[in-house]
Sequence to fold (369 residues):
Amino acid sequence: MFRFLHSSDLHLGKSFGGYPEAIRNRLREARHGAIARLAQAARDGGAGVVLLAGDSFDAETPAPDTLRHALRAMSAESDLTWIMLPGNHDSLAATELWRQIAAEDLGNLRAVTSTEPFELADGVMLLPAPCTQRRPGRDLTEAMSMPTPDGHLRIGLGHGAVTDFSEDCGAGIIPPNRAQLSGLDYLALGDWHGRVQVTPETWYSGTPEADGFKHDMANGALLVTLNGPAKVDVVETGALAWQTLALDLLPGEDPVARLTDELPSPTMRRNLLLRLQATGRLPLADRTALEAEAEAIAPDFGWFDQDLSGLATETRPDDLDQIDHAGALRHAAETLLAEARDPDRALADREVSASALSRLYALALKVQS
Fold:
């Protein structure tokens, strides 16, 4: 029996440049903290080895402090053995990166820079396929068919897309039945940031710390036990959560109540990045109330964004009367309403006009009160 932890795609040093500075710092720190959480998950599960299936670093030239802090963090978990495979973001083309890692000569970290099988533990062979460059253009996992001593467990460690992935991941190279073709007891893969089971013995672990809204799942690692058919257990390791909250709204329902019912408790919001997507249609007054509530709760979250581009607004003449019966404000409101309904304008521009009309409406009500 052999047990290990399978992880990948830490992307240490990822900049998150599209987010505000405060949450960028937390996102970067959460990725670094994933090292300690992976170590604890391995210990809790009775595993002494952590396999990192590529893209441990986000770039071929990580900042010196990013590299040093990562290696020190792994070295501190001295009761564990870390196996680090080059991925497409930190491929073997990054010769200086892998030279520096080798120069550190950490006793519990092995950077795998060749396809030569080696003994991971008594009776257990690892067959690695490190990425040679960003886009190798060939199936590097063919190397996993190399012979190993009879009776040994065979574990493959690779990085890249299988041929039956969707177009979202790009054209794949690794055959989905690579484990069967190469006689592997388990194939640990990296590259896809969501957890995917390809076959009973072939898995993508996904990233241990989420980095976007694409994968609607709790991020973690895989605790793998080989004692006959592979037994794979998911262990959660994420510190920050990402959630898309979709609300399809219709006139007659209370959009603020719908939003409140779907939100986590206030104590759970600081570590959540939330994106609100509203669709359907609402009267102007209800849309305005929804926007006001969204603005009020936004500071509760680690990061908050709202997308109301799919939410149509029903505006009646008496709604505009609430703003003004005549004059400049009434003219501005009518102009914004016309722009929001103009099918010849881009969707984003129509949404800007609809949002501006909602804000004008809210200000008018506030002045009147």
